[in-house]
């Protein structure tokens, strides 16, 4: 026995994706020993995750490898825990640029939907990729599996639409808050002019919460009314 490998493919990244991957890794690693087995029998457990979304947008590499390290001295505690994350959206190699089996598989996963299964381009025209293509054809021609596939696609599109709507709503709320903030600052300056007070710099007022701006407006407007 050499290594234990768990391979996952994810269209969507669930909220607790990272801890779920660790949980599956722990289950894979922990099931190696029976009640009286020796620790020396333990072998590395490797999780390989192909994801169709970007989990680490600030890093350009599409293949990220995680282990158990000391962050200060870069010392490896053990190579028995390995998590490999392959982010498909980051993979942009062209067919003629493919150099390794990993790159060929990533290209296959990204482009198989638009390729002719009976006329695969080199270097994909090999038995292993033809077999994978046939398996995919069988999957998509089975009525029940096809329904499941379409349901997953619909869920994926709905999820992405929800993200876009939430993002736009957050932007609009930000714009509304900005307009509200500007209006309150304008009212503060108006009251200060009427009271012949020095104007508080806009930059200073812009750092205050909206509730504090409202409190200042109420206080100044009350003073204007009394004056």
N/C terminus separation:
89 Å
| Structural category | alpha/beta
User: What ranges have pLDDT less than 50 throughout 5 or more consecutive residues?
Assistant: none
Largest sheet: 4 strands, mixed
How do the SSEs run, as a string of H and E? EHEEEHHHHH
What would you call the shape? elongated
The amount of helix comes to: 40-55%
Oligomer: single chain
Report the average pLDDT across residues: 83
Tell how many strands the DSSP assignment holds: 4
Structural write-up:
The chain has helices at residues 17-30, 101-111, 127-141, 143-194, 202-206, 210-226; strands at residues 4-10, 45-51, 63-70, 75-87. The chain has 227 residues and is α/β, with parallel strands linked by helices. The protein has 2 domains: 4-32 and 42-157, no CATH class; 178-226, no CATH class. The mean pLDDT is 83.
Q: How are the SSEs ordered, and which strands pair?
A:
Elements: E1 4-10, H1 17-30, E2 45-51, E3 63-70, E4 75-87, H2 101-111, H3 127-141, H4 143-194, H5 202-206, H6 210-226
Parallel strand pairs: 1-2, 2-4
Antiparallel strand pairs: 3-4
Helix pairs in contact: 4-6
